[in-house]
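$ ./design --mode recover --in tokens.txt
reading tokens...
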């Protein structure tokens, strides 16, 4: 029987966000903050795991993965420093341009599930399917001023350099990341990046999330706080990639959905990335979840608005 999937090795992602701050306080990636909220440790940031899929997706989709790749994931369980995880990708039919991906811990716990594929005409992703099933949301407390269709009132200019500090949200540099990245690649490096097919170092897929988020959100995306947030779902899609180190891009943001569960309120923020010629080169969809229990007085405010 032919093999149905390929996989990498068990690898140990490294935590670089223990000093992360937003809204004037530490994040869930701080050990004390995580402990105060009942978590067993400070989790590794979800997008860190995306790098482990790159060798698999390059094997399946060749260099086109770096040009028009899309990775779409639902984070199911947290990973803590010291744990080892393995990436899997289903082998698609010969004509297919999309496939299933997942990641597991050594004990079989599923870390994430999702899809990955290539364009230029991207097929329906795992998050496209998930969003099509979202129920209408009412009586939001933390996100009472956030609504579907809300567009950012600012356009940001962003770039990533090897030694550029990425702000309080990402208190590390690209060089720091490359020193611990789970799947190193010569195309990422300053010394060897010119050997890439594009003659320049490229930004690792996991750092595209940093590029689109390190400036924070537009001032009109008002979230009540202080409150603790985490990434629940994420999708990165390239149209005219890859993205390059030290290249300036313009980004715009838009809320494309809001949702909630028993434990969290969430918004789905799409970031559009344009090159210097104003051509759309990438999109980054982030489903940011905010823990209801971390917002003081949540139940009282909910009662006041729901009657």
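writing sequence...
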């Amino acid at each position: 029987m032919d093999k149905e999937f390929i996989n990498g090795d068990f690898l140990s992602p490294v935590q670089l966000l223990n000093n992360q701050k937003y809204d004037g306080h530490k994040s869930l990636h701080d050990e004390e903050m995580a402990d105060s909220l009942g978590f067993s440790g400070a989790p590794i940031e979800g997008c860190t795991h995306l790098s482990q899929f790159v060798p698999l997706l390059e094997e399946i989709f060749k260099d086109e993965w770096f040009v028009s790749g899309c990775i779409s994931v639902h984070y199911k369980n947290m990973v803590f420093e010291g744990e080892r995880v393995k990436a899997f990708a289903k082998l698609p039919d010969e004509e297919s341009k999309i496939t299933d991906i997942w990641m597991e811990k050594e004990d079989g716990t599923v870390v994430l599930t999702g899809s990955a594929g290539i364009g230029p005409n991207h097929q329906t992703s795992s998050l496209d399917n998930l969003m099509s099933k979202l129920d209408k949301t009412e009586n939001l407390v933390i996100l009472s001023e956030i609504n579907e269709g809300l567009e950012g009132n600012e356009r940001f200019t962003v770039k990533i350099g090897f030694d550029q500090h990425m702000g309080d949200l990402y208190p590390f540099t690209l060089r720091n990341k490359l020193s611990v990245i789970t799947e190193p690649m010569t195309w990422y490096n300053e010394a060897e990046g010119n050997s890439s097919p594009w003659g320049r170092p490229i930004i690792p897929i996991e750092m595209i999330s940093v590029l689109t988020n390190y400036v924070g959100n537009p001032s009109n995306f008002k979230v009540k706080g202080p409150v603790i947030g985490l990434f629940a779902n994420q999708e990165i899609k390239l149209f005219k990639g890859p993205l390059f180190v030290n290249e300036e891009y313009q980004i715009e943001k838009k809320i494309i959905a809001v949702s909630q569960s028993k434990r969290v309120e969430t918004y789905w923020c799409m970031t559009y990335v344009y090159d210097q010629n104003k051509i759309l080169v990438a999109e980054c969809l982030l489903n940011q979840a905010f823990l209801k229990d971390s917002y003081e007085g949540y139940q009282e405010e909910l009662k006041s608005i729901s009657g």
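exit 0
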